[in-house]
TrEMBL record:
Gene3D superfamilies tied to this protein: 2,3-Dihydroxybiphenyl 1,2-Dioxygenase, domain 1 (3.10.180.10)
Cited SUPFAM superfamilies: Glyoxalase/Bleomycin resistance protein/Dihydroxybiphenyl dioxygenase
Name of the protein: Extradiol dioxygenase
Keyword line: Dioxygenase, Oxidoreductase
Pfam families: Glyoxalase (PF00903)
InterPro entries: Glyas_Bleomycin-R_OHBP_Dase, Glyas_Fos-R_dOase_dom, VOC_core
Keyword Oxidoreductase: yes
Length: 115
């Protein structure tokens, strides 16, 4: 049966974004050939939200958003917005080297990946 998920981030500068995942986030990876890196992600969850238009988003999760912001800032990561507290978590987003945004949040809800 289904045993995982494969997330794709489309980027105007895929090489720079791959370098970011490898060098800044230090995600383990395999080379699928010719430098095409596939990264191991931390445990994941999926949620389905109502919307007027179909879309998908990716948020990385952390245990302590303030500490993660401090660590990533020290590595030169640009944050796109100030942390915002929602009933389900505290969120922000970072700018990837390729120009797109990537969500980052500290869940305040029970985590499904702990089941």
């Amino acid at each position: 049966m289904i045993n995982g998920a494969h997330v794709i981030i489309y980027s105007r500068d895929a090489e720079a974004d791959r370098d970011f995942f490898r060098d800044v986030l230090r995600y383990p990876h395999v080379d699928a050939g010719r430098g095409w890196l596939i990264f191991k992600l931390p445990p994941a969850e999926v949620a389905v939200h109502p919307a007027e238009v179909d879309s998908h988003e990716l948020f990385l999760m952390c245990d302590d958003l303030d500490a993660t912001i401090a660590e990533l800032t020290a590595s030169g990561v640009e944050f796109v917005k100030q942390p915002e507290r929602q009933p389900w978590g505290v969120l922000t987003s970072i700018r990837l080297p390729g120009g797109s945004e990537l969500g980052l949040y500290e869940p305040l809800h029970e985590r499904a990946h702990d089941l």
